[in-house]
Design goal:
Radius of gyration: 41 Å
Helix content: 40-55%
Strand content: 15-25%
Order of helices and strands: HHEEEEEEEEEEHHHHH
Shape: rod-shaped
Strand order of the largest sheet: 3-5-6-2-1-8
Low-confidence stretches: 20-24, 319-355, 357-364
């Protein structure tokens, strides 16, 4: 039995080659003439058996990776492909009649193809309008049309938990030339090949069927999450450094005269940093990032610290006996020295010096007490501001991690 089958296959192979020599054409050439030149095939009409039939089309989404995601404009670019399959009953043949040819590859303008469009595009509705992709035809009428490229769609960003934010973007495909009673899309997805992006990772992929007015559509959801390392190094760590420096203003000695300038410098740094931070986020983001609230509270705290610094310096520079010692003007010093000379029994520099030392020793306890109060005021302000900063940072970390 096996010998008979083998001999039959050999005879068929020899006969096919003899036919090629006689006719001078390959089997694929004869098949192409049979399908498109010597037949009544019409590429304008939808390939259904009856007029009222619904053509079932499989639309498989093939994501390659995220090319770009702009949170400010709400635009995402995805490198992807589409595997489109349907049955064309007019394009069938028996492979044995054509030398075992089981498939044929023809240009897309030779057969009927669906007009695929995007429901949420950024700039253009057709999918890959300038590119041409061939169609593979199988003997049972199966049509396989694989298209590929980059699509740009709208995506509403959600930056509440920046820099640990996640976004869900949806690509909706439909055919505007046929309504759902004529053509029904059945979605699918294969994600075997995914290119990594420097800033974004693909967290989840979903798909489902939907209806867009009177059209059948397929929706493909891509959930992406940010890689937070870069944002932490360039956003969070500078904020922490500024918050610590903001509290350290009360550790600067008041005699240096640099307290107010240091506090205002930190306040301006917060303002500049908040401006830079707002430029990389959507202008009307809904919801507002938690980090924006943290920056606003830190900026308010920095303004309060400037006010407290000025109050502390006013206390330090008051000219009365209960305050800390400060430099006395020259005229006042000379007047006091003359008065002390008249009060002494002997008009000698030694007696004047002794009396001055006695007065200074008598005034030292009051002035020391005032300096101690100022140091206590600085320590209280330092610990309160540092505690407020720690509370803000801890609140942000808890809100982000529990999201």
């Amino acid at each position: 039995m096996k010998m008979t089958t083998t001999m039959l296959m050999r005879w068929l192979y020899l006969i096919s080659h003899l036919c090629i020599c006689v006719w001078g054409k390959k089997h694929s050439e004869r098949l192409y003439e049979f399908l498109f030149q010597n037949s009544s095939y019409n590429k304008v009409l939808i390939p259904t058996v009856r007029d009222n039939d619904t053509l079932m089309m499989n639309l498989t989404f093939l994501p390659r990776g995220i090319s770009e995601f702009d949170e400010v404009t709400g635009k995402i670019s995805i490198a992807m492909g589409l595997d489109i399959r349907w049955i064309d009953s007019s394009l069938r043949w028996n492979p044995l009649e054509y030398g075992g040819v089981s498939h044929l590859v023809v240009p897309e303008d030779h057969v009927w193809t669906p007009v695929l469009t995007l429901a949420n595009p950024v700039d253009r509705i057709p999918v890959f309008p300038e590119d041409s992709f061939p169609v593979r035809i199988y003997a049972n009428g199966m049509m396989i049309w694989i298209r590929g490229g980059t699509i740009s769609i709208t995506c509403q960003p959600n930056v509440r938990y920046y820099p640990y934010d996640q976004h869900t973007c949806r690509a909706k495909f439909l055919t505007i030339d046929r309504i759902r009673n004529e053509l029904m899309l059945r979605p699918g997805m294969r994600s075997a090949i995914l290119d990594k992006n420097e800033e974004w990772d693909i967290a989840d992929l979903k798909y489902h069927s939907c209806f867009f007015d009177v059209y059948s559509c397929s929706t493909f959801e891509i959930k992406i999450k940010r890689r937070p390392e870069f944002s932490i190094l360039n956003t969070c760590i500078p904020i922490i450094c500024l918050g610590i420096l903001n509290a350290c203003v009360f550790l600067i000695p008041p005699e240096s005269g640099e307290r107010v300038s240091f506090a205002i410098t930190v306040l301006l740094s917060f303002a500049v940093f908040m401006t830079i931070f707002s430029s990389i986020l959507p202008k009307n983001s809904d919801p507002v990032p938690i980090l924006s609230y943290i920056l606003m509270f830190m900026m308010i705290e920095s303004g309060i610290i400037v006010v407290l610094t000025i109050v502390g310096l006013r206390i330090f520079h008051r000219r009365n006996n209960s305050d800390c010692p400060s430099k006395t003007p020259c005229c006042i010093t000379i007047t006091r020295c003359v008065d002390k000379i008249h009060a002494c029994n002997e008009d000698t520099p030694l007696n004047v010096s002794c009396q001055q030392d006695t007065e200074r020793r008598s005034e030292t306890p009051q002035r020391t007490h005032s300096c101690d109060r100022l140091r206590i005021f600085d320590l209280i302000c330092f610990y309160v501001s540092l505690l407020g900063f720690v509370v803000l940072v801890s609140s942000f970390a808890i809100l982000v991690k529990t999201a």
